[in-house]
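User: Could you go from structure to sequence for me? I need the amino acid at each position, not a summary. Structure tokens:
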């Protein structure tokens, strides 16, 4: 059974809008358009998510009322849903969780993994060694150079 679409009020206090969720995956947005003339459709919607879907697969449109935008969004989603795999939804969830973990590290003042200097390397033979210690790294150079030559990598 598919989860119902739910809406959560967008966090921008200056614009009226909602993020739309399919279960726990944010699949789009419905909201008032900013900076458009008063004589054009004031509501816009976008349907699609990344990562998980190809960037060009996202669809969007405009409408005169919220109800019309919601209806167009739901119609589009019902057309897109059969083409979306569970792995695409899982990819979005994984990205969301990774970003939350990075934000939590920053909030705690911890260094990110990329900020921590690490001189350890893994040789193609499986041994882990410290690249800054010549005694440890010399025996593995011939393995690394041979692998680079085989793959024509410098």
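Assistant: Here is the amino acid at each position, in order:
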């Amino acid at each position: 059974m598919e989860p119902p679409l739910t809406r959560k009020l967008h966090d921008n206090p200056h614009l009226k809008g909602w993020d739309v969720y399919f279960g726990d995956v944010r699949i789009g947005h419905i909201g008032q358009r900013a900076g458009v003339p008063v004589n054009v459709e004031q509501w816009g919607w976008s349907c699609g998510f990344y990562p998980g879907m190809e960037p060009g697969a996202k669809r969007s449109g405009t409408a005169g009322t919220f109800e019309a935008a919601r209806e167009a969004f739901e119609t589009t989603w019902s057309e897109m849903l059969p083409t979306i795999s569970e792995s695409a939804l899982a990819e979005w969830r994984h990205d969301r969780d990774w970003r939350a973990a990075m934000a939590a590290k920053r909030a705690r003042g911890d260094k990110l993994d990329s900020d921590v200097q690490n001189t350890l390397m893994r040789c193609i033979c499986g041994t882990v060694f410290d690249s800054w210690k010549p005694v440890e790294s010399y025996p593995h150079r011939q393995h690394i150079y041979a692998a680079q030559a085989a793959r024509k990598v410098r």
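One structural detail worth keeping in mind: The mean pLDDT is 91.
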